[in-house]
């Protein structure tokens, strides 16, 4: 549940009230002047804004059976590979944020500040070029976006906002599984730029984004990215989504990504399926394209009014390490390059909702990789398999 305040007045500081009082006096004086002496220079006002405040906290404990020595759930050598849950054998906060929204017929906006281990993990690749901006600022801003209505059913929004790609959500409360599928973790969760949204009719919504690049707020080159999303409501229970993103990455390589997702909700069963494929030019001195692909399928059954069961299968293959650089590890005095992530996985979860604002989610998840890749804190020898169990308690304010 979100606490809401409905007001036609913005929240103002004490100094702002003094300015407003002076304005009232000036207006009263102007009202005594002849009508022809007054001019209409004020911008039109939207008289029905709705201001909403909210917060969310998700705490967790996870056990990685590979027992990574750094406690970061990682590939051999210590490179972290997942955002949620990202730590082993540790009580911590996965995600906590506070937000305020404003919604009116002709403008809207959201400001949300965040922290947590998933935030640290997800923003670790945020570039630093120059001395301003970079990850220390970027990771604090979940969203900072302002929107204006341009015409009937057409909006433009600018700032930092959630990515237009994918079918899974950043916050665990909005996701069918507690942790994110690999295709979600390795596509953008956030973007910085401008987006245009057109609600064509009751069934079709189109969105065009122009952004700095592939999940970056701080720019790392002179290029930009552009992406399209189409959401089609086939019926009252089914939504089909297509999304793409074309961008110039740090080494001036052209990256092209396409994805297709389907969501269907029935009385007690909901399903989600998504498939992605991407390619990137190999760069200077090399010809051809490197490719990667992935898919996931999730089913959620509402077994009782307070308990749901969730199952997932997934596949991810980035043989050329375009998106996932797996790093290396030291074997004696020799440095060994890790193989690529080419994994098949699955998970099973139990979600309990004792009260409307509280969620207790428990999940067991595992992957098997083509070659030994995952961290092994017991012997140091990389593992072909990775298994984690996590339990989480979250509260929505």
List keywords for this structure.
397 residues, globular
What is the secondary structure topology, with strand pairs?
Layout (H helix, E strand, L loop, with lengths): L2 E4 L7 H18 L18 E15 L25 E14 L3 E9 L1 H6 L12 H4 L2 E11 L2 E9 L19 H4 L4 E10 L4 E8 L13 E11 L2 E11 L5 E12 L3 E13 L7 E16 L2 E11 L10 E4 L2 E4 L4 E14 L2 E12 L15 E12 L1
Antiparallel strand pairs: 1-2, 2-3, 2-19, 3-4, 4-5, 5-6, 6-7, 7-8, 8-9, 9-10, 10-11, 11-12, 12-13, 13-14, 14-17, 15-16, 17-18, 18-19
Strand content: over 45%
The N- to C-terminal Cα distance equals 6 Å
Domain count: the total is: 1
Strand order of the largest sheet: 2-3-4-5-6-7-8-9-10-11-12-13-14-17-18-19
Give the helix/strand class: mainly beta
CATH architecture title: Beta Barrel
Per CATH, the superfamily is: Porin
- Quaternary state reads single chain
Q: Could you tell me the mean pLDDT?
A: 89
Largest sheet: 16 strands, antiparallel, barrel
CATH C-level label: Mainly Beta
Gyration radius (Cα, Å) is 24 Å
Q: Per the principal axes of the C-alpha atoms, what is the gross shape?
A: globular
Fraction of residues in helix: under 10%
General description of the model:
- The chain has 397 residues and is mainly beta.
- The protein has helices spanning 14-31, 117-122, 135-138, 182-185; strands at 3-6, 50-64, 90-103, 107-115, 141-151, 154-162, 190-199, 204-211, 225-235, 238-248, 254-265, 269-281, 289-304, 307-317, 328-331, 334-337, 342-355, 358-369, 385-396.
- It is 8% helix and 50% strand.
- The strands form two sheets. It has a 16-stranded antiparallel β-barrel. A two-stranded antiparallel sheet has the order 15-16.
- The N and C termini lie close together (6 Å).
- The relative contact order is 0.14.
């Amino acid at each position: 549940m979100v606490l809401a305040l409905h007001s036609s007045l913005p929240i103002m500081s004490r100094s702002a009230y003094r300015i407003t009082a002076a304005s009232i006096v000036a207006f009263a004086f102007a009202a005594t002047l002849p009508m022809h002496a007054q001019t209409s220079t004020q911008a039109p006002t939207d008289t029905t804004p709705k201001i909403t405040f909210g917060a969310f906290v998700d705490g967790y404990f996870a056990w990685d059976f590979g027992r990574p020595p750094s406690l970061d759930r990682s590939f051999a050598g210590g490179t972290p590979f997942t955002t949620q849950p990202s730590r082993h054998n540790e009580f911590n906060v996965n995600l906590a944020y506070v937000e305020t929204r404003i919604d009116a017929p002709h403008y809207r906006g959201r400001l949300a500040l965040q922290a947590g281990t998933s935030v640290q993990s997800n923003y670790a690749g945020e570039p630093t070029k120059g001395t301003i901006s970079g990850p220390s600022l970027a990771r604090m801003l979940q969203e900072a976006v302002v929107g204006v209505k341009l015409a009937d059913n057409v909006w433009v929004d600018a700032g930092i906002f959630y990515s237009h790609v994918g079918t899974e959500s950043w916050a665990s409360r909005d996701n069918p599984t507690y942790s994110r599928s690999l295709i979600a973790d390795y596509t953008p969760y956030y973007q910085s730029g401008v987006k245009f949204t057109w609600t064509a009719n009751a069934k079709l919504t189109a969105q065009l984004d122009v952004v700095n690049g592939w999940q970056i707020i701080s720019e790392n080159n002179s290029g930009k990215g552009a992406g399209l999303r189409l959401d089609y409501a086939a019926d009252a229970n089914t939504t089909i989504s297509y999304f793409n993103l074309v961008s110039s990455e740090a080494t001036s390589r052209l990256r092209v990504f396409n994805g297709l997702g389907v969501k269907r909700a029935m009385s007690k069963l909901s399903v989600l399926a998504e498939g992605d494929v991407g390619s990137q030019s190999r760069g200077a001195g090399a010809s051809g394209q490197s490719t990667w692909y992935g898919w996931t399928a999730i089913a959620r059954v509402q077994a009782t009014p307070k308990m749901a069961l969730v199952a997932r299968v997934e596949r991810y293959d980035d043989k050329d390490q375009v998106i996932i650089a797996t790093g290396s590890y030291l074997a004696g005095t020799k440095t060994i390059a890790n193989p690529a992530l080419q994994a098949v996985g699955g998970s099973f979860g139990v979600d309990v909702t004792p009260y409307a604002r509280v969620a207790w989610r428990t999940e067991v998840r595992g992957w098997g990789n083509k070659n030994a890749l995952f961290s092994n804190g017991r012997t140091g020898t990389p593992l072909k398999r990775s298994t984690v169990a996590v339990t989480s308690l979250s509260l929505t304010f």
